[in-house]
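So, who can interpret the following?
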Amino acid sequence: MAKIFLDTNTCIDLIESRGKLQGIHLQDHEVVISPLSIHILIYVTRKKIPYPTLSRLIKLFSVTIFDQSICDRSLIGPTKDFKDNAQLHSASDAGCDLFLTRDKRLLSLQFFGAMKMVKELN
């Protein structure tokens, strides 16, 4: 069992059932998301609160913290994108093994610390 962090794009695809996660089986793993992903999902999809589907689904995930330390480190790097940095630092601080994303720039990192960047689960 791996501890898998869902990047925002992957999280939105999963929660909104966009079909882009076919063949990815998460049930045998601990799935972690950032509160930033929840914020972005609600903003992008223009969902109103309460959002019962999201409330039900996020109970299946662990939600990381987003604090001053993550914010400070995200302003430095490792990329030029604050949101991506916040996701990377949140996932790393949570001790995730894998970072599941479709973002080609993040995949090109291959690793962030001990965490492997992956597009799919093998």
